[in-house]
């Protein structure tokens, strides 16, 4: 009896599930692109922004939430019936999976981005193409590639024990630095991260230096630091905004500032600089609440710009394009 | 946390695949110890999904000194930031702007008169280094002491005012070993 009652539903399910398998009417789909004309995309928007109707406050119909709540006859379900994202991630095979972090109900959801940073916009529209164009080196087609410089040393097979040994590193240093590749459209140097660190030896005597340092760091970088750490790394839009702020607002206010030292850099494309304690008040965030800080305890900081460049030369080119001058002897 | 799909396979095929043919040999005489990756009980520590801790950020309108404005996300609660000194009115970023250069305005000729009378030893270090080649023959004509431009101490630039001190010391009758003959000529 049960099966008889279930029969039509099962049949409907079967039909609906295989509906995509049924043959279509012929001649509806054409997969050739011979006759189709590309869509015309006008360069300028045809609709003027001035033609949109002006929205006044009276025209907006807002339901009064208080009135709506009082007129409600039934009770709303309790808060605990709401869906809460799981607190723990228990692996890919667990039946309860947390929602992705882009979901607003996820625990690790962070809203944003709220704006496109100005320096990032400049980079994408101007700086990247400029760097690529200025760094172009023409090689006539058909030119054979230059053989790569061999940096690992071979073993001379003077002893039978040297057979199949891995090659030795360069003399004097056991680390191979990355090779600088010529800039093309795939590897235009870009800012990857900004690392800010404060060195507070005075905190051994007075722990308040760490508190002040963290407050300054949080206000200028926009991220929380760990509880006892006065260093942080910022990525993405925050890094762009920090660099923009530092270049355009902070560096010009420093007295006798000439630029970055020409010898800076760790030879793998990371450029560093430092700010004195008296320079920190040039940040707009510190300046806005400067009277709330104990001014004697505001520390300086060291900043490292981590770029995607593989050499200091390329990183320096990026920094110059961003508006950072260099002084002194340039060491690549 | 690479893949969260339940259907996704784990990276290492040996960790957890309960129905894979890899661990069919457990039914044979050899039984894998429980601590090996081939164990039947999947054990994985749960990872706490932390809520992001971030300071409140406001949208702030920044006005540069040339009047251009843009918005930034900042932790400062002020709605607008007007900059008085930035890259738009700084000589380092605008090397061609004459108004930003630190040029000496001497319309009344007072500075020139002062230099004619007292020499250029008062000038700051960088200026004396720049202007010595032009100024030296002029001083020689006027009879002003030319020694300060010719001595290597001034070319170093560090002790532009040092000749005043040494000139003062020359008048004193003590310490004849310190006084240089060049300074002695000046007095």
UniProtKB/TrEMBL annotation, chain A:
One of its GO terms (molecular function) is structural constituent of ribosome. Belongs to the universal ribosomal protein uL5 family. It holds the Pfam family Ribosomal_L5_C. SUPFAM superfamilies: RL5-like. Keywords: Ribonucleoprotein, Ribosomal protein. Gene3D superfamilies: 3.30.1440.10. This is Large ribosomal subunit protein uL5 C-terminal domain-containing protein.
From TrEMBL, chain B:
Residues 143-154 have a biased composition (Low complexity). One of its GO terms (biological process) is mitochondrial translation. One of its GO terms (cellular component) is mitochondrial large ribosomal subunit. InterPro entries: Ribosomal_bL31m, Ribosomal_bL31m_N. Pfam families: bL31_N. One of its GO terms (molecular function) is structural constituent of ribosome. Residues 1-22, 122-160 are annotated as: Disordered. Gene3D superfamilies: 6.20.130.10. Residues 125-134 have a biased composition (Polar residues). Residues 51-95 form the Ribosomal protein bL31m N-terminal domain. This is Ribosomal protein bL31m N-terminal domain-containing protein. It comes from Xylaria hypoxylon.
